[in-house]
Write a structure and sequence with these properties.
single chain; about 220 residues; alpha+beta; GMP Synthetase, Chain A, domain 3; three-stranded mixed beta sheet; 7 helices; globular; OsmC/Ohr_fam; OsmC/Ohrsf; OsmC/Ohr_hydroprdx_reductase; OsmC-like protein
């Protein structure tokens, strides 16, 4: 019995040392990966900002959150796996040359915006003073883009004169609060503003030049 307890304690101490080492390792600054070799059969899309990004201060590097995804495409369909163990698939409609076997990539983008908004709003509401407890949220989100940005015939010397990005994302976000939450119009505005500023997907859409026109509604009043 004593030997078993001693072994369990030793294992626990070893486990703590491993966890401490892993946490320390996560903050170690590692050099950027070596540049891809320049060969006639390879194109390397390199943004010069990546050079400065690799030399970011330690304070920025230690807060950096990384994501990883791999994929395999056949014709217009792609199946992807995330480093967190989830599978994602995309395709395009038959009229665009696909088989419509999965959501379009832009639909995934809008779905990411909705999921990110939901998770971020819960976090923001929980940290407001007094707290805003959210029971659930309903989304009705729409968007449009100019097809010419993607469909203009490719040429050797010119890029499309029309941006391919989404031009406008609009719709409503209806938030259902717990009865104990005191929700005023001003607090709903703060919730919406703080959520849109902290959601990585919404932040990226804003930065691209996409017009974000989202109405936030207090669903508990209806």
């Amino acid at each position: 019995m004593v030997t078993a307890l001693h072994s369990a304690a030793s294992f626990s101490r070893a486990r703590r040392h491993v966890l401490q080492f892993q946490r320390a390792e996560s903050f170690v600054r590692r050099p950027p990966p070596p540049p891809l070799p320049r060969t006639p059969n390879r194109y390397y899309s390199h943004d010069k900002r990546a050079d400065a990004d690799a030399d970011a201060p330690d304070e920025i590097m230690r807060h950096r959150r990384h994501y990883s995804i791999s994929g395999r495409g056949e014709r217009s369909a792609v199946t992807m796996e995330t480093n967190t163990g989830h599978t994602i698939s995309t395709d395009v409609p038959v009229k665009m040359g696909g088989k419509d076997s999965g959501p379009q990539p832009v639909e995934h983008l809008l779905a990411a915006f909705i999921g990110c908004t939901q998770a971020t709003a819960i976090y923001v509401g929980r940290n407001m003073v007094p707290r805003l407890n959210i029971n659930g949220m309903d989304f009705d989100i729409r968007a449009y883009r100019d097809e010419r940005g993607a469909l203009m015939p490719p040429t050797m010397d010119e890029l499309p004169s029309v941006p391919a990005r989404l031009q406008r994302v609009y719709g409503t976000v209806t938030v259902h609060f717990e009865e104990s939450s005191a929700v005023t119009k001003e607090r709903l505005r703060i919730l919406a503003e703080q959520t849109e500023a902290r959601c990585p997907v919404a932040n990226m859409m804003h930065a691209s030049g996409c017009v974000m026109d989202i109405e936030w509604v207090n669903g508990s009043e209806s």
